[in-house]
Amino acid sequence: MPWLALALNTPGAWVAPNFHAFEIDGTVRDATALTDNQSIAYCTHVRATFLGDPAAGGLGSLEGAESIRLEVRTFYSKIGRTVAPECRDWDGPTVDDLVTNNNPQSLVSPAGPARSRSEYGVIYTTTILRKTSA
């Protein structure tokens, strides 16, 4: 997974590499170059958290960590419209607000009106990657 290194370099933070926008058929797109009317069905972020002490083996090292919790979250529009503006412009904390519903205000779509949280669906997956000895 090409995103794993990016997530491991910023442990505990949601990250989105440039290629994290997907069309309905799974075709991946560079989110930084999206136009508002492109047909983007899904937008994905990833987060890695060390389980153990990664500092024991040096910064960004798995030497001290027994495992990594890897989380992947994907949001989409329940009403069938493109999420290209959101995928291009929303960062991790903005998507946190969508997922956790901590912000009582409507979400502001960069290309249009404020959007209700009920317009979005979120798929959330977590797995553990464990280091094995050679």
What does this structure look like?
The protein has 134 residues and is α+β, with helices and mostly antiparallel strands. It has one domain (4-130). Helices cover 16% and strands 34% of the residues. It has three helices and seven strands, in the order αββββααβββ. Strands 2-1-3-4-7 form a five-stranded antiparallel β-sheet. A two-stranded antiparallel ribbon has the order 5-6. The longest helix is centred in the C-terminal third of the chain and has 9 residues, at 92-100. The protein starts with a helix and ends with a strand. The model has no long low-confidence stretch (mean pLDDT 81).
What key phrases describe this protein's structure?
two-stranded antiparallel ribbon, alpha+beta, 34% strand, 134 residues, 7 strands, single chain
